[in-house]
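User: I'm designing a mutation panel for Lipoprotein and want to avoid disrupting the core. Could you give me a predicted structure to guide residue selection? Please restate the sequence first so the numbering is unambiguous.

Assistant: Good idea. Sequence first, for numbering, then the predicted structure tokens:
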Amino acid sequence: MRRTTHHRTIALAALTLLLAAGCGTQSGSDAGGSGTVSPSPTTSHKGCAEAKAELGAADTGRTFCLTTGDVLRISLDGTTSRPWAPVKVGGSGLEATNSGIVLQPGDASAAFKAVSAGTAQLTSSRPLCPSDPARISCKGLQDWTVTVVVTKP
């Protein structure tokens, strides 16, 4: 009986390690980006990537430049079991505008207009593991963060 308990303990420890490894951090290159990105004119600013009209999950961690008057759309493709949280904005230079209608459960959609010079952070997150009450789940999150630098024309 003692040997069986020991084997169960080892098996449980191995299972725990496998689950922890599967629910670690994950980069934003996960499938779930919109894939439809239209380039807009770029603004030269040190550290900025080319401005885009629409950002997706693959753009996480990047810095983009806009000029006042530009509109930036965010489209994060999620699923019912791994939904994106609404996109939040912090900082200055951007103002929320109408982003249209989200058609798929789990997606996050937002739009922001560059209204004044400043720097803003756009953020969202979603669960790394699908929500399933019948299985062990993890509490890990996939973060999405983009920095937007707004300059005057």
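For picking mutation sites, this is relevant: Residues 26-151 form a domain with the Immunoglobulin-like fold (CATH 2.60.40.2020). Residues 99 and 113 are 10 Å apart (CA to CA).
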